[in-house]
From TrEMBL:
Pfam families: Hydrolase_4 (PF12146). This is Serine aminopeptidase S33 domain-containing protein. It comes from Paenibacillus motobuensis. Keywords: Membrane, Transmembrane, Transmembrane helix. The keyword DNA-binding does not apply. InterPro entries: AB_hydrolase_fold, DNA-binding_regulatory, Hydrolase_4. It comes from the Bacteria.
Length: 324
C-alpha cells in the first residue's frame, strides 16, 4: 500500500476523534455556562424575597403636621399601616410610598407637610412586609400595586375627597410601584416617580454589574431571572414591570426624577423609561439632578424637602400645572 495512503487512513480517525473531543468540550462548557446563569438568580434572589423588613418609625408631629393612623385592607387580605394628613380646602391626595427596604414611609412626613402647605392631603402607605404592615415578603413592585389600590379604594369611599385628584408618588422601588399601579388603576390621575427601576430584571443586572459581573453575562441572565420570578410570583405578575406599565398611562401625566450618578438605580433606567414614555406619547415631565442622590432630594433636606428649592419646586410646579 502506498505510504501516503496509509498515513491518510491513520490521520482520519485521529481528526475524527479530535473533532468529537472539541464538540464534547464545547457542549460541556455551554451546559456549565447555562447552569451558572440559572444558579445566579436562585442563589441571590432569596436575599430579597421571603423576608420582612422592620423599620424605624417616625412621628408626624416632629415634622410639624398632625396625622391620623389608619389601616388599609388589600384585595389579597393584608392589613397595611397608613397615615393620613390633611390640608385646608384640599385639592386632592398624594399617595406616598417609600422604597424596597428603608426608610419607613413615615420618614416622608416632611413631604406631607410640604403638600399640606400647598393644599394637598397625603396618604402615606407602609407597603406589605414592612414595619407595621402585614405580609411575609416584598413583591419587588409586582404585588405592591395592590397596596396602592387599597389606598385608592379608601379615598374613593370618602365622600369629602372621592371626586378630587389622586397622585401617586414613590421613591426607588416605590417609584416603580406607582407606575405599575397607574397601569391597573385609572383612578390614579398622575404619577411622581423618583429613582424608579425600569424592571426588576434590569435592577438585578445593574447590581450584579456594580458587584463586578460583566454586564453581558447579566443581560444573558435576564430570561432566567424572569423565569425565577414567574415561578415565585406567578407568570402573570411579570406584566407589572415599569417599562411595560408606563406605556399604559394614556393622557395621565408623570413626573420622572432621577440623579445622573445614582449608584443604586443607575441613570440608564431613567433613560429607558423616558424613551418608552416618549415613544408612546405619554405626558412626561422630567427633573434630572447631577451627582449620586438616590432620593434626588438632597439628604440634608430629607426632613424638610421644601428647603431643597429646585427639587420641591419641580414637584409643586408639576402639580400646579397638571392639576390646576
Amino acid at each position: 500500500m502506498n505510504e501516503n495512503v496509509v498515513n491518510e487512513v491513520i490521520q482520519k480517525p485521529r481528526k475524527s476523534r479530535a473533532k468529537k473531543i472539541i464538540i464534547i468540550i464545547a457542549v460541556v462548557l455551554i451546559v456549565l455556562f447555562i447552569a451558572l446563569l440559572i444558579f445566579i438568580p436562585y442563589s441571590i434572589m432569596p436575599m430579597f424575597l421571603g423576608q420582612r423588613y422592620e423599620q424605624q418609625q417616625f412621628n408626624s408631629l416632629d415634622y410639624g403636621i398632625p396625622s391620623e393612623r389608619i389601616t388599609l385592607v388589600t384585595d389579597d387580605s393584608l392589613h397595611l399601616a397608613a397615615w393620613r394628613t390633611r390640608a385646608e380646602d384640599s385639592r386632592g391626595t398624594i399617595i406616598i410610598l417609600s422604597g424596597i427596604q428603608n426608610p419607613s414611609v413615615t420618614a416622608f412626613f416632611g413631604y406631607a407637610k410640604m403638600f399640606a402647605d400647598h393644599g394637598w392631603d397625603s396618604l402615606l402607605i407602609e407597603m406589605r412586609a414592612r414595619g407595621e404592615s402585614e405580609g411575609k415578603e416584598i413583591g419587588l413592585g409586582m404585588t405592591e400595586w395592590r397596596d396602592v389600590k387599597a389606598g385608592v379604594d379608601f379615598l374613593r369611599a370618602d365622600k369629602e375627597v372621592r371626586d378630587l385628584p389622586v397622585v401617586a408618588l414613590g421613591t426607588s422601588m416605590g417609584g416603580s410601584t406607582v407606575i405599575n399601579a397607574a397601569k391597573e388603576l385609572p383612578e390614579v390621575n398622575g404619577v411622581i416617580s423618583i429613582s424608579a427601576f425600569s424592571s426588576w430584571a434590569d435592577a438585578f443586572v445593574s447590581n450584579m454589574e456594580m458587584s463586578g459581573m460583566p454586564k453581558a453575562i447579566g443581560i444573558m441572565d435576564i430570561p432566567f431571572i424572569n423565569t425565577y420570578l414567574g415561578f415565585h410570583f406567578g407568570f402573570d405578575a411579570l406584566k407589572y414591570s415599569p417599562e411595560k406599565s408606563i406605556t399604559k398611562l394614556g393622557e395621565r401625566p408623570i413626573l420622572m426624577m432621577h440623579s445622573t450618578g445614582d449608584t443604586q438605580i443607575p441613570y440608564e433606567h431613567f433613560e429607558k423609561l423616558l424613551n418608552k414614555a416618549k415613544k408612546h406619547h405619554i405626558d412626561v415631565t422630567t427633573f434630572i439632578r447631577q451627582g449620586n442622590e438616590h432620593f434626588v432630594c438632597y439628604e440634608q433636606y430629607s426632613e424638610a424637602p421644601s428647603q431643597d428649592t429646585e427639587f420641591s419646586q419641580a414637584i409643586l410646579d408639576f402639580l400646579a400645572v397638571k392639576f390646576p
